[in-house]
Amino acid sequence: MRLKELRQQKNISQLKLAMDLNMSQNTISRYETGERKPGISELILLADYFDVSIDYLVGRTDNPKTNV
What letter would DSSP give residue 44? Predict the structure, then answer.
């Protein structure tokens, strides 16, 4: 998953992201390390937050935008 990469590109901390999405910093950390997998509702929140497709977020494509 590209979560850490996207977060670092935007220069925001795990805590800021967690607060913006009403999650815990520990949850974000576990997503980034692969210790925990986000559910579909969390994937949607993260993709919307970073304005990328879910496929890009999870590494299924290198195109960050949704094919419309």
Answer: H
